[in-house]
């Protein structure tokens, strides 16, 4: 297995892995009558821009196939990533739908922390169901936490759904603790939302 930066031509269920990290929120923001959240994630990945753009994605690859994903970023690049998302939304949905999608996207801040420059934030963390329980997620976390320590980050942080105890247990094994409970502020028919738990690991 290899853990590395994603490439535009990587193969595997990459969008589905990222979608699995927060399906409710993705559906709230990006699902329309004729487009799915997965459609948008695939578009953003290929664009290279935004938090889901391949340039911002770390992957675990086995036998040429992506089996795990994670997006790692700090406060210094956060603004650039958000600008990339806005550009992607306008291109993908067009001006008629853009404002509606943009307004919905503002609710993501209620369950996702804007990191500081001294904090490394993890989002879109997903492991292929076939490979869960085989140490893939642990290997990726170990690598990125070690890199964060070497780069003198003060904290490694993330937000996890309170309906995902398996992921929370994995993060806890790495010394991360829950520091805040968050409630999603958006509402949309047909979507039930969970609370998010902010978890942190103090590094330096």
How is this structure best described in words?
The chain has 204 residues and is of the alpha+beta class. The chain has one domain (2-202): Aminopeptidase, CATH 3.40.630.30. It has helices spanning 14-19, 23-30, 37-47, 75-105, 136-150, 165-173; strands at 2-5, 57-62, 65-73, 119-127, 155-161, 177-182, 196-202. Strands 1-2-3-4-5-7-6 form a 7-stranded mixed sheet. A hairpin with a 2-residue loop joins β2 and β3.
How are the secondary structure elements laid out?
Blueprint: E1 2-5, H1 14-19, H2 23-30, H3 37-47, E2 57-62, E3 65-73, H4 75-105, E4 119-127, H5 136-150, E5 155-161, H6 165-173, E6 177-182, E7 196-202
Parallel strand pairs: 4-5
Antiparallel strand pairs: 1-2, 2-3, 3-4, 5-7, 6-7
Helix pairs in contact: 3-4
Q: What distinguishing features does this structure have?
A:
6 helices; 7 strands; 204 residues; Aminopeptidase; 24% strand; seven-stranded mixed sheet; alpha+beta; 39% helix
């Amino acid at each position: 297995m290899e853990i590395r930066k994603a490439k535009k031509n990587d193969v595997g269920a990459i969008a589905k892995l990222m979608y699995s990290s927060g399906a409710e929120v993705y559906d709230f923001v990006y699902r329309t009558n004729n487009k799915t959240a997965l459609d948008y994630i695939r578009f953003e990945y290929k664009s290279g821009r935004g938090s889901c753009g391949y340039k911002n994605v770390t992957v675990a690859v086995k036998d040429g196939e992506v089996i795990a994903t994670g997006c790692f970023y700090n406060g210094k690049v956060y603004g650039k990533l958000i600008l990339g998302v806005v550009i992607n939304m306008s291109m993908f949905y067009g001006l008629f739908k853009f404002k509606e999608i943009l307004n919905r996207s503002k609710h993501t801040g209620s369950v996702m922390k804007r990191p500081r420059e001294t904090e490394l934030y993890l989002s879109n963390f997903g492991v292929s169901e076939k490979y869960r329980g085989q140490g893939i997620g642990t290997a990726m976390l170990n690598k990125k936490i070690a890199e964060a320590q070497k780069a003198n980050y003060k904290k490694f942080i993330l937000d996890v759904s309170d309906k995902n105890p398996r992921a929370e247990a994995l993060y806890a094994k790495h010394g991360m603790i829950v520091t805040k409970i968050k409630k999603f502020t958006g509402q949309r028919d047909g979507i039930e939302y969970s609370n998010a738990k902010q978890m942190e690991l103090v590094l330096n």
